[in-house]
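Dear colleague,

Following up on Tuesday's group meeting, I ran the structure prediction for the two-component complex that the binding team flagged. I've pasted the input sequences exactly as they went in, so you can double-check that nothing got truncated or mislabelled along the way. The structure tokens for the whole assembly follow below. Feel free to forward this to whoever is handling the docking comparison.

Inputs:
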Amino acid sequence: MEKYQNPELSALERAIDLTDRMTVEEQCGQLIYDAPAVERLGIPAYNWWNEGLHGLARAGVATMFPQAIALAAMFDADGLHAVADVISTETRAKYNEIPKHGDRDIYKGLTLWSPNINNFRDPSWGRGQETYGEDPYLTAELGKAFVRGLQGDGKVMKTAACAKHFAVHSGPEAIRHSFDAVASKKDMEETYLPAFRALVEDAKVEAVMGAYNRVNGEGACSSNFLMDKLKEWGFDGHFVSDFNALEDFDINHKLTKNQVETAAVAIKKGLDLNAGRVYEHLMEALEQGLVTKEDIRTACIHVMRTRIRLGMFDAETEYDKIPYDVVACKEHKELSLKCAERSMVLLKNNGILPLDLSKYKTIGVIGPNANSREALEGNYCGTADRYVTFLEGIQDAFDGRVLYSQGCHLYQDRTSGLARENDRLAEAEVVAEQSDLVILCVGLDAYIEGEEGDAGNEFSSGDKLDLFLPAPQRLLVSKILAKGKPTIIVTAAGSAINVEADCDALVHAWYAGQFGGKALMNLLTGKTDFSGKLPVTFYESAEKLPDFCDYSMENRTYRNIKDNVLYPFGFGLSYAETVCSNLKVDGMNVTLDITNNSDRATEDVIQLYMKDDAPCAVKNYSLCGFKRVALAAGETKQIAMTLPQYAFESVDENGVRAIRGKQYTLFAGTHQPDAISEQLIGTKCLTTQIIL
Amino acid sequence: MEKYQNPELSALERAIDLTDRMTVEEQCGQLIYDAPAVERLGIPAYNWWNEGLHGLARAGVATMFPQAIALAAMFDADGLHAVADVISTETRAKYNEIPKHGDRDIYKGLTLWSPNINNFRDPSWGRGQETYGEDPYLTAELGKAFVRGLQGDGKVMKTAACAKHFAVHSGPEAIRHSFDAVASKKDMEETYLPAFRALVEDAKVEAVMGAYNRVNGEGACSSNFLMDKLKEWGFDGHFVSDFNALEDFDINHKLTKNQVETAAVAIKKGLDLNAGRVYEHLMEALEQGLVTKEDIRTACIHVMRTRIRLGMFDAETEYDKIPYDVVACKEHKELSLKCAERSMVLLKNNGILPLDLSKYKTIGVIGPNANSREALEGNYCGTADRYVTFLEGIQDAFDGRVLYSQGCHLYQDRTSGLARENDRLAEAEVVAEQSDLVILCVGLDAYIEGEEGDAGNEFSSGDKLDLFLPAPQRLLVSKILAKGKPTIIVTAAGSAINVEADCDALVHAWYAGQFGGKALMNLLTGKTDFSGKLPVTFYESAEKLPDFCDYSMENRTYRNIKDNVLYPFGFGLSYAETVCSNLKVDGMNVTLDITNNSDRATEDVIQLYMKDDAPCAVKNYSLCGFKRVALAAGETKQIAMTLPQYAFESVDENGVRAIRGKQYTLFAGTHQPDAISEQLIGTKCLTTQIIL
């Protein structure tokens, strides 16, 4: 057995051994994402690019979970872990079979470029749907659980996760290849970096991906500031560039004069793996004396260490026997349905819900997202082997007559180029008139909300122009509501939408995954209770927010805003009435009781928020704990939680995190301690003072 | 009451009265397809363009039937009548509501530009899917039934049908705007015109549409030859141009020097209604003395007569009370399912069918058309309110494990631009390996088989390049079959496909309409028996056929070919064994018995073919009768049919149709009297000689 094949040795030792058997040219080859085979050493070709944001993505059939922002709305670290475990299992199941058939190409490997833990600081960002929302603590906790679920706790790593995009990356999409995100030291430490630190320090994430943008003038893939952070946190994996991010260095960022220099700058700073082709110039850079063989060797050791940790040079691993049959199996799909049920957020209910279907003869289902599989998917998705659209879910659950109209195109002013504008509006009006209940399915999909460069993103490269529905849908909603029928609006979108509509009930469904329609009807009919909570603030208007290009957190997120709130962070209604009581704090230990006062089973989310009296603390308060709790009808549970040190820390203008407060206020309840939540839900948070 | 409003008067009298109240400018306005209102006369705006080929099309939600070529495969005039009646009913239901909401735009009216009764002379033609196949008699009989179903038999016309495209129109799509279709007098009378004559003379079709191409040098919309035919047949409706066909006259066909001249030439020849904008030049042509006021008046009388026949100027009609609720109602959708079951053609079965599902643990469903709604639609379709894809149909019917892989893109060499070619092939191979039955769903859809100018038609403007599957699917089929698993191939396509595969069973599903997947599984499991028959010859190779641009019928269709047959016209297998006997002919009356020798209910199609010994008769024989028959297990039915005079006629080189034969041979059975059918089905046709 060669040394690099010996599972008794450390991954680093083995990686050094393997690297040192390669020529420098061979080492350089391994630093590009679609690394070639080194046949004489038995190293097979390996394409590092795979995706698993909410299900194994772009790799053919896989279980499709709700989009990441929806998963965040579950406020459930265990849930994220379970989802990631399924993704990892399906990735392994495919990896056990696909390469045997000669396919070692993109989206077939064990290195998943997920999760996206950027802060969703501005609701316009099209890729905000990929994140866990606007709160650094929530993002860190969910991100850690997700990474642990992907990487597993076996002898070898199950799959490698990747924390992206390091750092401060959050739009605008249209200018991401040349943009300089300027963030203060305080915002860095307070908002943009905590999740990355948590994933590196606590979850031992195997990869970190550098972003496209510059960060305070430095290229994110070659930033002294960011690389120092990784070192400080003890990062022990490999650092990869976003796809073609290095290609931006000379042309767009004007940081270098050509790709040879870019390659040299990047590898010297610690960029191990190049998703792109710039590292094809490494040998030239070596010849010009811009890099040393040791630079190349170090990077190669880092990437080979990851492959060794994944067991790629072991004779066998504990995951080799995962059968293909687990892919999109019944149990995994049931979890997807469960996640969809837990993630949809009930924003408004005047009592029409839960629906008593026996009261209705005809349900009118209207809207461009009603029978759309795309409205279930979100971006970075796989291929489900079964979809249940909203319309299909309603048809399956309701024995009466269902009338359907698309109502309008998702964003264009007509569905047919030969027709006049609003060519489906009359049909939708007729459907509403003929129905005694209307379910209006509106929103976005990844064709208009998403990433720069994706085929369909027609508005602003995937970012939103405002927080309203696209114009034809605004008209549709107003025309249908004018019919005066009981109307439920269901919004599919990866971010905040202000539907501006006085409907009877409003559900924010996110991109709910393959069984979105089934989940929706289970919730609308009360078969399952709503329990999703907003991981982002729904603002009234984008116009009252700071400029999208302004990376200051002032007046952004529930922690710093003073108004402009339509629906608050942490908010979500349910059918049950849950009440918290008996809050006790002992050191870092918190206990409280939660009682379900209703006659139906429910789940709810305990949320802890801390207000810190230090002058540099966030303006309002910060989430410092959350726990999803299942309650039978009438049940009371005592819940124990532990406060993190983070709950007591504040960050000053120099970016120094420390405990400075004298008097802290801990809020505990099933929502934020804000007036809107208290009024809408009808309970106040419990409060206790903590004096340090 | 004004004279034109008086339902006691003839439509012509009323149209004359209405026309003569208009100024000549107003009359000209009514001759363009999106005719404006003439408010002082109470004439509302009217857009003449609507479609109803296999369901009300492009008008929002409607019941979606199988594509026209599939409806033809039912060999069932009553069935076509029932389908058309549903289309007409749904069109009326929408017309009763939509214009009330101010929408009188395209696809909202009562004038349906269907059916397409062109002869499907060459399997390459992308729009062949819209036709009733290659036989003039079948096309005429089905076309008549369809027109009668659309137009109804009420006091007013239910909807107006349109026989298109007059005439000799059948590709190539890429050059249709400049092409001159050269057809002999014999081929005209023998093949290209019979269906048009039948629809005009017998079914009183209300509209005829002139084609894009030239016909023997004349523009199809201004042809002396064609207009003389319409007069000869006593055409009593209005003649409309294909959309923008007149725009081709000066620019592409070089028939006129400008649009003013085109307008003059067309209206003088009898083109009443202009789908396009050329008739905007009519007033100019009048001023230049190129047309007379009487030319314009005559055309206007023709189009207003149609609107009057439709009851548009009656105080009320018998169809005004058709409720919106009929649109896509349960009964209509059940008919769609029934049509899908009757239209799919079982081409091969080595005994694997009907499936005993209890024998299988895992079914692998593979192919780009497996979970594709588009593969159910075909072109000129509406929006179904529920689809059952092949995959969904299989999942719904089978309790065991279903594994799915897309296998490949429909026609591109990869599914992702970042991947290498064949990026879904390994997954498909794994699925096949893990399954004990494979259902391979391949074929085309309207993105690659269809009409010039449609967005997605990437190959040859919608025509097929050959009769094989697109290259990535050919590779997929060969790789999957190499796994040696029991494999059923299901082909969705609007025309002949040679799958070149030694599979266990082969089903040609056409574009099967909204419930294609449910129909497929009802058939595969034997819940319903197969009974569809090919309305076109499936050739072995397009290379052995005459050039696509050659409009001679020599060596085209079962009537004139000598070889190159993969599956014959009229052919289709079933699970039952039906036998015909006791053929008797008395004058034009034919009787025969048909017995179902199996223990399952079935349907089959009696087919009568006549061979004529006249020297100018078609080389082989011609279909001259067909009848769909339902048989219980073990049942015998006596069937009576009447021979049309057509059965004894031949057409000479001068295009003269006459009875010339001395000795006729009548073949009667459930297939063509060809060796391939006889061998594959295992019965011979009954034969009798008729001496005139």
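Chain A touches chain B through 47 residues (CB under 8 Å).

Cheers,
M.
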